[in-house]
């Protein structure tokens, strides 16, 4: 885990808000990154879920199990499976939120994979801001996560987690995948989790991506590395053509 300190301009922060809510380093002290089991390099593909009823509601919804996909979202999930058909994933993960599991289903079926549900890949909990309008996220829900990008991991979402807790749980989930022997997993997760964790940990994180290519429904980030050595972004697809 390498925490990157990124200075974000107001326009870039606004783009981060749009991407996380709109519709379509030093290692953590308490994680044993050197434990027995596989410790080889990985290529991880983090995929944002397809359009959900939470997206179309205009309200922040980070509850578990949360809302289902819309009919459009189910079409997007089918099209995503077609786009990813040429990949040779060896494992598949989804969060505890049903929208990721529903997004994963066509890809898992197409590639003959078993889907593992992992709570560490869930969306950043909104805490006090649960159910508030997405339009107000900049002055509420995302204030603390934006501080995480500048290195202030002690910033806490009221009633929720701070940056240390967020980063640690994603790291732990990836370490679990590595220990299972996964070298090329596809992980169905959420816009906030994917973008903030990637920007906090990748050694080549480009803050401008948040403005030029923010993560829409079905978007994905591919990173290479390991929990022990750190991560490098090798592909960022913020605007997939999924219908």
TrEMBL record:
Q: Which GO terms describe its cellular component?
A: cytoplasm
- Show the GO MF annotations: phosphatase activity
Q: Which InterPro entries match?
A: His_Pase_superF_clade-1 (IPR013078), His_PPase_superfam (IPR029033), PGM_Phosphatase (IPR050275)
Please state the span of the N-terminal signal peptide per the UniProt entry. 1-29
Q: Which SUPFAM superfamilies match?
A: Phosphoglycerate mutase-like
What keyword terms does UniProt attach to this protein? Signal
Q: Supply the Pfam families for this chain.
A: His_Phos_1
Entry superkingdom: Bacteria
- By what name is this protein known? Broad specificity phosphatase PhoE
Tell me which species this is from.
Nocardia alba
